[in-house]
Specification:
CATH superfamily of the largest domain: Mur-like, catalytic domain
Strand content: 15-25%
Number of domains: 3
Radius of gyration: 22 Å
Strand order of the largest sheet: 8-7-9-6-10-11-12-13-14-15
Largest sheet: 10 strands, mixed
Shape: globular
Number of strands: 21
Helix content: 25-40%
CATH topology of the largest domain: UDP-N-acetylmuramoyl-L-alanine:D-glutamate ligase
């Protein structure tokens, strides 16, 4: 995707995947501009890097003439917006984000990570292992805490690590050399309609893989894969998998384990981010790294030095009195994994979960699942639903979800009321673990919550 003026425009530039592409094109010498609905920490960072961004849906603010202008668009921006309509009607070449990513990555061996849960952490961990071995290209779905970016570039590396996003069937635009598939728990049913259609989309994706598929153990019974790629399996603990962890020791906030693989055992691996779910993520990342001939000692060093991903189980406060963790989890299974990790690491703590539901459709489709996992907390605080791209649905709101939760200590609050409640807990001097979860704008409360709890 190119033009003689080397100008490119992004509709929805503040999205995590879109921002990585914007950074890539700027690196390639393009003049990059974009629109997003609201400012954020990420759009501010892009502006600091020299990318022009505006926040009003007004075609008059376009800095480039629309004729033949390459435009990268995320379906999170509705086609009904004035900007999309204007660009489409005036000769711009509009490409979905996934199309652009597919074109960029086609020239290298794509190491992709797909799945309902875990793909951001696993792909970022894999990118770190390859970077430690000499260099890698990577388009990530989160901000790496090691590199403080979602884009890594190395022209000498034959590999590109890609988070394969299933939303809107985006990952069908990729041509993976190898892939990890972490899970196929139904999601995005506003797009797919049924769990069966969601699963079939993963089958179609897997049939695009040219070399090796590394499936979470158990998925080989759920997915009908007809392609020619070699199938391997991984697991956190199941010894029937080709790659699995054993002798797991959790103590004093650290996790150490042995990694069994087809050629032997790597003993005494230590996780830099000691979260239970990262055992499984690290087994998957290490499997692909081993298949790419990354030395075992590099993998050992890389797993220990991996600093995590922004908003993936980030520990913001850790004192004898209080632990505060923020996590992007927004699906019942993701929340269950996050809660289980907190329980294992801090089993004696009173656990307070603060959840901001994301999307009306997801809340409607998985209300019972959300209610079940949130009911396992000691205290639940719900915020109103973050709508993102959606309009309200009658009868679907946080009050509906609150009614399904069986935890006796449950509350629906505004953001201001939440901060007052946190301050009240801080004054009580009871050992607590506080967990904020959700994919909306709850992250903007994190610094304030951390400051209250730290004091």
């Amino acid at each position: 995707m190119s033009n003689t003026d080397k100008q490119i425009f992004f509709l929805g530039i503040g999205g995590i995947g879109m921002s990585a592409l914007a950074r890539y094109y700027r690196h390639e010498g393009y003049t990059v501009a974009g629109y997003d609905r609201t400012p954020s920490e990420l759009t501010h960072a892009l502006s600091e890097e020299g990318i022009s961004i505006f926040y009003e849906d007004n075609p008059e603010l376009l800095p480039f003439p629309p004729e033949n202008l390459p435009v990268v668009w995320t379906p999170a921006v509705p086609q009904q917006t004035a900007l999309w309509q204007y660009l489409n009607n005036h000769g711009a070449h509009i490409h979905k984000r996934a199309e652009a990513l597919g074109m960029i990555t086609a020239a290298r061996k794509a190491l992709c990570v797909a799945g309902t849960h875990g793909k951001t952490t696993t792909s970022t961990m894999l990118a770190h292992l390859l970077a430690e071995s000499g260099g890698v290209n990577a388009f990530l779905g989160g901000i790496s805490e090691n590199y403080h970016t979602n884009l890594l570039l190395d022209s000498s590396s034959p590999y590109v690590v890609v988070e394969a996003d299933e939303f809107d069937r985006s990952f069908h635009h990729l041509r993976p050399h190898m892939t990890v598939v972490t899970s196929v728990d139904p999601d995005h049913l506003d797009i797919y309609g049924t769990p069966e259609a969601y699963r079939e989309s993963f089958e179609q994706y897997c049939n695009l893989v040219s070399d090796t598929i590394v499936l979470k153990y158990g998925l080989h019974d759920k997915l009908h894969i007809t392609g020619k790629a070699h199938l391997l399996t991984y697991s956190a603990e199941d010894t029937r998998a080709d790659y699995y962890a054993a002798n797991i020791v959790v103590s004093d906030g650290s996790i150490v384990f042995d990694l069994h693989h087809p050629s032997g055992v790597m003993r005494g691996l230590k996780l830099g981010v000691p979260v239970w779910v990262n055992i499984e993520n690290s087994v998957a990342a290490a499997a692909i790294a081993l298949l790419c001939a990354v030395p075992e000692e590099t993998i050992r060093r890389g797993l220990q030095s991996f600093a995590g991903v922004h908003r993936r189980f980030n520990i913001h406060v850790q004192t004898p009195q209080t632990v505060y963790i923020d996590d992007y989890a927004h699906h019942p299974q993701e929340i269950a994994a996050s809660v289980a990790s907190v329980r294992k690491l801090y089993p004696e703590r009173h656990l307070i979960g603060i959840f901001q539901p994301h999307l009306y459709t997801r809340t409607r489709d998985f209300a019972d699942g959300f209610a079940w996992v949130l009911s396992t907390l000691d205290e639940v605080i719900l915020l109103p639903i973050y709508p993102a791209r959606e309009l309200p649905i009658a009868g679907v709101d946080s009050q509906m979800l609150l009614g399904k939760i069986t935890c006796p200590d449950k509350h629906l609050m505004s953001k201001d009321e939440l901060l007052a409640r946190i301050a009240e807990h801080a004054r009580q001097h009871q050992p607590v673990a506080v967990l904020t979860i959700g994919a909306g704008d709850i992250d903007r409360l994190v610094p304030t919550i951390a400051e209250i709890l730290q004091k």
